[in-house]
Design brief:
By secondary structure, the chain is mainly α. It has helices at residues 3-27, 34-51, 55-59, 62-73, 76-99. It starts with a helix and ends in a 6-residue tail after the last helix.
């Protein structure tokens, strides 16, 4: 493989890693569903295809961009509702984890 091909291949893998991290971080945000993830990925992909820019150059850190994208695409009331739901589920999981070790006497 020529040196140029290796460089191109490495850049392609870096793009894939950026996109994968962005998708995961976006999906973890409260109120984000599959449709929002697909919309955001389409926006990033279209921009990068049109400009030739790497996603990191165009959008910065994938974690930060996921946070900004969720804030832009998810209605505030929906995000707040999902955030409260997630907090309750985390407490219930914690309590369940602690009580699993209790045995009947």
């Amino acid at each position: 493989m020529a040196k140029k091909d290796r460089t191109t291949d490495a850049a392609g893998k870096d793009r894939e890693k950026w996109m994968a991290r962005f998708q995961v971080r976006l999906a973890m945000r409260p109120g984000v569903d599959r449709a929002i993830v697909l919309q955001a990925v389409e926006e990033v992909t279209a921009h990068c295809a049109q400009t030739g820019e790497h996603p990191r150059t165009a959008f910065g850190d994938p974690d930060t961009y996921a946070e900004r994208t969720a804030a832009r695409l998810v209605p505030a009331d929906r995000a707040a509702r999902e955030g409260r739901h997630n907090a309750v589920m985390n407490v219930l999981d914690s309590v369940r984890g602690k009580t699993e070790h209790i045995t009947d006497l």
